[in-house]
Amino acid sequence: MKDVASLINHVQNAYARCIDNGNLEAWPDFFEENCTYKITTADNYTQGLEAGVIFANSRCMLLDRVASLREANIYERHVYRHFLGQPWIVSEDAGEVHSETSFFVARTMRDGTTDVYATGRYIDIYRLNRDAPKLRERIVVCDSSRFDTLLALPL
Amino acid sequence: MLEQVARTAGERSDHVWPSEGVTRVPYWIFQDRDIYAAEQKRIFQGPSWNYLCLSVEVKNTGDFITTFVGDTPVIVVRDADGELYAFENRCAHRGALIALEQRGNTKAFTCVYHAWSYDRQGNLKEVAFKDGIKGKGGMSASFCMEQHNPRKLRLAEAFGIVFGSFSNDVPPLEEHLGEEIYSRIGRVMGGRTPVVLARYTQALPNNWKLYMENVKDSYHASILHLFFTTFELNRLSQTGGIIVDPTGGHHVSFSAIDASSAKDNEYAEQNIRSDSDFKLADPTLLQSFKEFPDNVTLQILSTFPTFILQQIQNAIAVRQIVPRGVDRTDLHWTLLGFAEDTPEQRLIRLKQANLVGPAGYISMEDGCVGGFVQRGIAGAASEEAVIEMGGAGTDSSESRVTEASVRGFWKAYRAQMGL
Fold first, then answer.
1. Which residue in A42, A8, A2 sits closest to A126, CA to CA?
2. Whole-number Å distance between alpha carbons of A124 and A67
3. How far is B123 from chain A (nearest CA, A)?
4. How far apart are alpha carbons B357 and B351 in whole angstroms?
5. Radius of gyration (Cα) for chain A, nearest Å?
6. Distance, CA of B112 to CA of B338 (rounded, Å)
7. Mutate which of B230, B282, B336 to disrupt the A interface (most A C-beta within 10 Å)?
8. Which whole number is the average pLDDT over A25-35?
9. Structure pTM?
10. Res. B4: pLDDT tops 60
11. Which chain A residues contact residue B227 at CB under 8 A?
12. How many CB pairs under 8 A join A and B?
């Protein structure tokens, strides 16, 4: 069995690749059925303000997010490029791993403009299902409280 | 063609409003730097009431927040007498920001540049080295601290929402808003204690007025926002309507559940995107709790120039528009719950927060559509928008297939700008 850090590193690379390659339909598969996914800001996180920019407390809500992005919402075509730091293992206990990972996301718009869209950290709880960790919780804490135009694709 | 070019060249600089009135909006209004500067003076620093913050955000003695009126930085602070005070966040000495943090608690404010210090009512109290050192230097004997203060604002509250004005001429807030608007702020905020659930800012690539037009435009809601339509949260055939106050500047758009109304096929006939096969895998997103005695499920309320109070089912928020330049705008969202919420109700609010904000199922598009206009009108300064849906008036109506409240905005805007 691989060490925990490399297992998580591996699955996070797959997560980033999934979003960046536009394979959104596979994105909810990184989560457990009963999961939490939240995008928030460092200010809100520090102050304990509970609402997110995105908040889901089930994998089905992530499926709905993807369906809405595909079928309902209007936004200009754009892509992300995620750059992830090495995961920092906060604790590991009974098949559950708490970790934090820095992210840097560049966004390229239809017209070719590339900007730094978001930086921050994932605050995660993984369940180690043998060698296939799944997210029980991912809190995406963006360093900035400012979102340019809109947040369509997940971080 | 040549004639049109000549007309274009001629009209560009003299800023004359089209003769049709508020059914036409000239595009230079969204592009011109002189207009932007005039708005700061005539609207934001003129006879208007501007949203500053919620009273609960500055609850205790010494609590302060920094905010904006137009693009002017402002401090709001609670003094020991329990009253709120607001003044420009600009040192009377050399103009530096007095407070740098978004919020905090303080006994006094000291400018970091030269340590000029202000009390919580915005009065200059100390000037560092005022009398010089060892009898040398210092301010002249005639310098009078009382004459050097940042400009102060008048303050007024409506149901825990704090508004400020630079003007001594604007009528009291309640009178300014009028009973119909004021009471509908009370409908959402009255008799309970708001709790901030989140704050974030959406940076919009467009002139501030394009966002306000969008807020007031009940015509687009069920067309641009497919999520709304698909889940039958809002259809133009629901019961509802719009209220426009006599000045035109304030409005309420609302819709209510009408159990008796049959499903309509008007959307299909208009060939508007509508896909009723689209089902949520987790329908708890849209499970609401009954929060109000009436059946109103959506109430969007705006006050001139830049304040919005939103009830979309149980998603309650205030939005503040802050102009950052001719084609840049910050939209500050404050999502609200109430101290009286049960844990179950709070969870519903967290879920329905997905409907709004930069990632909102039904408001994501509002972030980009203003940019589409700003980009679309480049090179068309002397062309004009056509705003004739529902006629030429600015009256309240039972139909939301109207642009009456958009015209109302321009009516109030023109009056204040003298255009």
1. A8
2. 24
3. 30
4. 13
5. 15
6. 37
7. B282
8. 97
9. 0.93
10. no
11. 68, 72-73
12. 125
Task: Return the closest-CA partner of residue B325 out of B380, B374, B376.
Answer: B374
- Segment B189-218 shows an average pLDDT of 97
Interface check for A146 against chain B (CB to CB < 8 A): the answer is: yes
List strands edge to edge, sheet with B103-105.
Answer: B84-88, B72-78, B63-69, B103-105
Min distance B121 CA to chain A CA atoms (Å)? 27
Rounded distance between C-alpha atoms, residue B12 and residue B296, angstroms? 45
Query: Which residue in chain A is spatially nearest to B361 when comparing CA positions?
Result: A73
By 3-state DSSP, what share of chain A in percent is helix, strand and coil, each rounded to 5?
30, 45, 25
DSSP B134: T
Angstrom distance (rounded) from CA A27 to CA A19:
7
How wide is the angle at C-alpha B329 spanned by C-alphas B109 and A65, nearest 5°?
110
Residue B18: half-sphere exposure toward Cβ, Cα within 13 Å = 20
Cross-chain residue pair A41–B359, CB shorter than 8 Å = no
How many whole angstroms separate alpha carbon B85 and alpha carbon B76?
A: 6
Cβ distance A61 to B282 less than 8 Å, yes or no, reads yes
Q: Which residue has the tokens 């409005």?
A: B251
Which residue of chain B comes nearest to A155, CA vs CA?
B359
- Does B371 lie at the interface with A, CB-CB under 8 angstroms? yes
Least confident residue range of A133-142, B71-80, B84-93, B237-246: B237-246
- Which tens digits make up the pLDDT trace of B287-343? 899 999 999 999 999 999 999 999 999 999 999 999 999 999 999 999 999 999 999
* B7 interface with A at CB cutoff 8 Å: no
**Residue A46 touches partner B, C-beta closer than 8 Å:** no
CB atoms A49 and B199 under 8 Å: yes
With beta carbons less than 8 A apart as the criterion, state whether B27 and B373 touch. Answer: no
| DSSP label at residue B136 | B
Phi, psi of A46 (to 5 degrees): -65, -40
Longest dimension (CA), chain A: 48
pLDDT tens for each residue of B6-30:
444 444 457 899 999 999 999 999 9
Kindly report, residue by residue over A60-70, the tens digit of the pLDDT: 999 999 999 99
The token duo for B57 is 């955000």
